Amino acid sequence: LKLTERQFVEKLRRAARRRMGASTRRGLHLRQGIGDDCAVLSGAGKYDLLITTDLMLEGVHFRREWQQADSLGHKVLARGLSDIAAMGGIPRHAFLSLALPRGTDFRWVDQFFAGLFRLAESNGVTLAGGDTAASMSGVVADIVVIGEAPRRKAILRSGARPGDEIWVTGVLGGAAAGLDLLRQGKRIARRTQTLRPLFYPQPRLSIGRWLSRRGLASAMMDLSDGLSIDLARLCQASGVGACIDADAIPRLRRTPLEYALHGGEDFELLFTVSARRAGKIPTQVEGARLTRIGQIQRGRRLRLIRAGREEVLPVLGFEHF
Amino acid sequence: LKLTERQFVEKLRRAARRRMGASTRRGLHLRQGIGDDCAVLSGAGKYDLLITTDLMLEGVHFRREWQQADSLGHKVLARGLSDIAAMGGIPRHAFLSLALPRGTDFRWVDQFFAGLFRLAESNGVTLAGGDTAASMSGVVADIVVIGEAPRRKAILRSGARPGDEIWVTGVLGGAAAGLDLLRQGKRIARRTQTLRPLFYPQPRLSIGRWLSRRGLASAMMDLSDGLSIDLARLCQASGVGACIDADAIPRLRRTPLEYALHGGEDFELLFTVSARRAGKIPTQVEGARLTRIGQIQRGRRLRLIRAGREEVLPVLGFEHF
After folding, report:
1. A85 or A27: whose pLDDT is higher?
2. pLDDT at residue B11 above 50?
3. Best residue in A12, A29, A36, A142 for a mutation probing chain B (most B CBs within 10 Å)
4. Distances (CA, A) of A282 to A4, A235, A250, A289
């Protein structure tokens, strides 16, 4: 199979579009389908429904020997919550499909749920259903999160316009730096602070809602696969290009630029703001930095300013395919 | 891990119940959580939302060497639609998380989607999103189906009362008979008719809605794991016992009683009807047989009448755990 994730998503999207006529006649209709952080369904009420699914496989997305069970439970849900944050939404209910190898330790399962429930509880999210199975190989976890956003107010990837400023929350590259430590086989206990961004990412729900309530973001998505590839997706969805400034990208001391540019799993928010509204963005919201890193441009090209020179932005983020 | 699926679901349900307070304050609230065919969410509109997830793993739920890709695509969605049928609901949108081993043939993927889309289209269902990944072992598919039912009209498992009649749709044991053929290594081409119930199960959506519109079923679920274990689940949810008549259980000629009693994946509907309303159930609806197979009783015991004698109903259905 030579499909990249992008080709695969394109394939799905085309197939799904052909068949959309039939189900839009009545009831819930699909405002935004495949290709954004969440699907958006509109019904009769004042709120649109946001739905996201995230699949995590042992050996592909994580290693059990590197990651404690409660961190995995946390992260499975955090991925879904981050997609809700990326639309400016409020998460409500989660559904978990979980397959475990026979012989999985009881305590492992308890700790997995402890991590998941801690994050669910602190965000007012209920575990409302799911499915279970025995796995022949590793752990498989698929999380579905259902959220809400005021009618027509979900922030899509497709709203960026030339001239808009490009912003990010927090600092980037922390998860990649943690992964790097693990790959080097360093002793982990002493480095827990360095591993926190990788093991306990905090979905940016309150910032997403803050931006949504004020109508400040023209487009938004979460950084799950890396700034360069995720920015490319936002630009593709909006039909625009972009130029970002390497020096502006917020990262911790000693984090290589490459980790901030191409490292996945930071779960920070990437958003755009019209030039007219950019003055309303503070440098900090709800305890997290907001940083302007570049500008949306006409055309389709992605550029990086590094050491005063403009070059092509290499798109290298993580693809699970 | 020694958890059975039932213990696992119980564990989840208890954990989820403890945390339900927080999220019921506002917006979508959970009318029915873990432990039915679908979760039921109520919002502001005239319709409740039905949500179900079904996880299928290669080597656990299917074998690729036995099953064509389009049949697998069909069945992945059919499982989810059957859960919507079991609530008397109308399916609207599906979300698919799919992991494929590297090297999966392009045509296999196209056929998988052809099977899935054919069933989606004939039921007015849109593929609205999902996630993809490369798998280190076999195919992993998790389907989410979102449907609707008129407010408070979803048919739960918990409504059966002593004296209610027990009914099933269609004939039982067909999927188990097909699986038996495959296990024997018989040549498949000549036997397609026998394999149809296993490979192309038809979710009973129109019958489910027919029963729902008329308010005839006091409880309902779909037969995914086998009549004996699924009846035990319905009785447990309703706090009742049951007695069924072996001779009444509808099955094809030469299908052993054991397949009809304990074989999974028939995806027929099991429902109960109050004695007062039982006269309104015809012997056929929308081209499928409806058959009375027993009665709900006080207490918790499950009994089987076989050759004129009453015995304990052995509960042997398929558990994925």
Report:
1. A85
2. yes
3. A142
4. 38, 24, 15, 9
Give SS3 for A34. Answer: strand
Q: Which of B48, B36, B79 is nearest to B236 (CA)?
A: B36
Distance CA A41, CA B113 (A): 23
Residue whose entry in the numeric block shows the structure tokens 């072996």: B246
Q: Which two tokens stand for residue A57?
A: 């496989």
Pairwise CA distance, residues A142 & A95, whole Å: 8
The tens digit of pLDDT for each residue in B287-313 reads 899 999 999 999 999 999 999 999 999
**pTM of this prediction?**
0.88
Nearest to A205 by CA among A37, A33, A28: A37
In angstroms, the separation between the Cα of residue B163 and the nearest Cα of chain A is 30
Sign of the dihedral through C-alpha B308, B310, B311, B316: positive
Instruction: Please judge whether B137 and A138 are an interchain contact, meaning their C-beta atoms are less than 8 angstroms apart.
Output: yes
What angle is formed at CA B42 by the lines to CA B41 and CA B47, rounded to 5 degrees? 105
Proportion of chain A above pLDDT 90, given as a percent: 69
Task: Tell me what the mean pLDDT of segment A102-108 comes to.
Answer: 88
B246 vs B258: CA distance, rounded Å: 10
Question: Any chain B CB within 8 A of the CB of A142?
Answer: yes
Test B97 with A60 for CB contact under 8 angstroms: no
- Partners of B57 in the β-ladder: B140
**How many other CB atoms are there within 10 angstroms of residue B282's CB atom?**
9
Q: How distant is the Cα of A296 from the closest Cα of chain B, in angstroms? A: 27
pLDDT category at B22 given cuts 50, 70, 90 is very low
With contact defined as beta carbons under 8 Å apart, do B269 and B168 qualify? Answer: yes
Q: What is the pLDDT of residues B158-192, one digit of tens each?
A: 999 999 999 999 999 999 998 888 888 766 665 67
pLDDT value, residue B23: 44
**What tokens were used for A72?**
């995995």
Element (H, E) at A30: strand A29-32
| B15: confidence class by pLDDT, cuts 50, 70, 90 | low
CB contact under 8 A, B23 and A125: yes
Q: Give me the residues of B, 59-118, that contact A with CB < 8 A.
A: 59-61, 90, 92-93, 95, 97-106, 109, 113, 117
Q: DSSP 3-state assignment of A251?
A: strand
